[in-house]
């Protein structure tokens, strides 16, 4: 059924379809009969799925990655898809429109998405109002934060600190996004000195709180092993909670979509099956190099229960979906949770 639904939707503009789908999920959620049927179809609940991670108890280890619900507007409806946690954002201090449209494209032959959204969001205050009004208090919420496009890198820490302090009462953990390829010069913040300075300042503020919250760093799949080694050192020095591995890639290698079509779509980060292997390799490398000392959330190219199991076996504790959720639907969340139950 979902494949037919997907076939129809994929005939239209990707960004418009996104808003249509979340609107439909909201509509299903508002009516108790349709919500009950939807939850019966897709939600798997069991104490065996509960997962402890960084001092938090997750109802299950399958989450929705940042980018799908940028403004925290659809948490209740998305929880009905069976997720154990939802990461909102990327959120910037002030609202910004993002890059010019069109900016979201499907690479169907690759089961992938190319995006150059550019942190389009309504700003931190709007997200807070949505978080205050959500009904589902059980699901874990992560806050993915970034800098505004016009903020120079030298002043980036102030943007991250602003959003961190504002969101602190309303989310369970934080994600520092310096790895998106769609904000000019943002990835330069992954260099050792600016990244360490940023994380130190966030951790200092975090430790001033009555009960500090986990801070994770989301890294790019395009890092070399020597750059990953620097990240491992920074995690040890700053004592942040862990890593999310990995963001979208700027690589265009080994794609099934013809090169002339990919080139015509322009710049952006690619997610989905093209990053499946690399993200798993990175998780395994970090797990081995750090001797299992760095907690990780896996994201990137999870399109089946086996993909999720591979990432958990490589050293991750939780997994997140985005492109796989779009291509496979909420049945993927159910399939992963049911597969995990068999092994627990």
Strand content: 15-25%
If you consult CATH, what is the topology? TIM Barrel
Number of strands: 13
Task: Figure out the total of helices.
Answer: 13
Distance between the termini: 30 Å
Annotated CATH architecture: Alpha-Beta Barrel
How many domain regions? 1
The SSE string, one letter per element, is: HHHEEEHEEEHEHEHEHEHEHEHEHH
Helix-residue proportion = 40-55%
Strand order of the largest sheet: 3-4-7-8-9-10-12-13
Query: Rg, please?
Result: 19 Å
Low-confidence stretches: none
CATH superfamily: Aldolase class I
Give the assembly state of these chains. single chain
Compute the average pLDDT: 97
Largest sheet, in brief, is:
8 strands, parallel, barrel
Described by the principal axes of the CA atoms, the overall outline is: globular
Structural class of the secondary structure composition?
alpha/beta
**CATH class descriptor name:** Alpha Beta
């Amino acid at each position: 059924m979902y494949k037919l639904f997907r076939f129809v939707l994929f005939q239209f503009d990707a960004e418009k379809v996104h808003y249509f789908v979340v609107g439909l999920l909201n509509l299903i959620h508002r009516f108790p009969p349709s919500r009950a049927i939807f939850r019966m179809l897709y939600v798997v609940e069991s104490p065996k799925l509960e997962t402890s991670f960084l001092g938090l108890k997750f109802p299950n280890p399958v989450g929705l990655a940042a980018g799908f619900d940028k403004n925290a507007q659809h948490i209740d409806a998305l929880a009905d898809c069976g997720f154990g946690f939802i990461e909102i954002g990327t959120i910037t201090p002030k609202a910004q429109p993002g890059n010019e449209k069109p900016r979201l494209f499907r690479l169907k032959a690759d089961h992938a998405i190319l995006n150059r959204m550019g942190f389009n969001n309504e700003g931190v205050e709007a997200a807070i109002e949505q978080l205050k009004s959500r009904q589902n208090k059980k699901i874990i919420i992560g806050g993915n934060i970034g800098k505004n496009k016009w903020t120079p890198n030298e002043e980036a820490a102030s943007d991250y600190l602003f959003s961190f302090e504002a969101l602190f009462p309303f989310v369970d953990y934080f994600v520092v996004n310096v790895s998106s390829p769609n904000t000019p010069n943002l990835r330069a913040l992954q260099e050792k000195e600016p990244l360490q300075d940023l994380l130190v300042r966030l951790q200092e503020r975090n430790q001033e709180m009555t009960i500090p919250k986990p801070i994770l760093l989301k890294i790019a799949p395009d890092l070399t092993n020597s750059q990953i080694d620097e990240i491992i050192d920074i995690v040890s020095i700053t004592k942040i909670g862990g890593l999310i591995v990995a963001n979208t890639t700027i690589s265009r290698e080994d794609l099934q979509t013809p090169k002339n079509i990919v080139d015509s779509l322009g710049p952006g980060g690619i997610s989905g099956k093209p990053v499946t292997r690399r993200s798993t390799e990175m998780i395994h490398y970090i797990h081995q190099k750090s001797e299992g000392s760095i907690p990780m959330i896996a994201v990137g190219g999870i399109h089946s229960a086996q993909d999720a199991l591979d990432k958990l076996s490589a050293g991750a504790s939780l997994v997140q979906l985005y492109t796989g959720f779009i291509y496979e639907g909420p049945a993927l969340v159910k399939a992963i949770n049911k597969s995990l139950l068999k092994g627990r």
